[in-house]
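2024-03-11 09:14:02 INFO queue: dequeued item EEP domain-containing protein, len=255
2024-03-11 09:14:02 INFO validating residues
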Amino acid sequence: MSETTSPVPPLTVMTVNIHKGFTAFNRRFILPELRDAVRKIGADVVFLQEVQGTHEEKGKKIADWPDAPHYEFLADSIWPQYAYGRNVVYPKGDHGNAVMSKFPIVSFQNHDVSLPGPEKRGLLHCVLRVPGQPLDVHCICVHLGLSESHRVQQLDLLCEMVRSEVPDNAPLIVAGDFNDWRRRANAVLEREVGLREVFVHTYGEPARTFPSRFPLLCLDRIYVRNASVHLPVVLPRRPWSHLSDHAPLVAEIHL
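2024-03-11 09:14:37 INFO prediction written
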């Protein structure tokens, strides 16, 4: 009798820049509301950018500031696994990228891709063990610079990291805030390391995500390799337009 293997359920992934838990221009602290909204999506893996790790001064001034680092507060009991990559360190705190997962994160590494200047950027590489999936799933949370010249170099560093750290046959998901308003990343990533952007592949163009109230620029992306995607969506303005200045992206990934 031949053994049959049940198909691996698809992964729902989400990416959003959370602006350290504040509304635009830092007018209001909305991290608890943001946590509720992220929970309702029910994603298996969440890619977060601009996540506050610690901040001693704000923690004393804001009544509902959590005691735990923000990635732990957001993960809570929904995502038992999380990883944080600290990109920016200042006297009273730090912030960076984070990945929250319902599946075991067996290893992670944060790569500093900062270039000379005030911007500090990182690539957080996590390796996930998904039940029923014979190969570990590699996830890279991205936040690239505002400068075009910096992004060009950071994309090269991302490609080199994929070549050196991700097996050619392993499922790979790369998501985050690329700040790529000139839409130059797609051609580079597909040509150099075979990554396909899920909105471009499905609809013919990347998603408009910024500013979230009236999205004009395609800053946020989800790329895959050795995986397929089903109906990626930009989450609606309500409630997201007051929770982040970037509209979140969600996609169903088939391994």
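2024-03-11 09:14:37 INFO annotate: The two ends are 26 Å apart (CA to CA).
2024-03-11 09:14:38 INFO item closed
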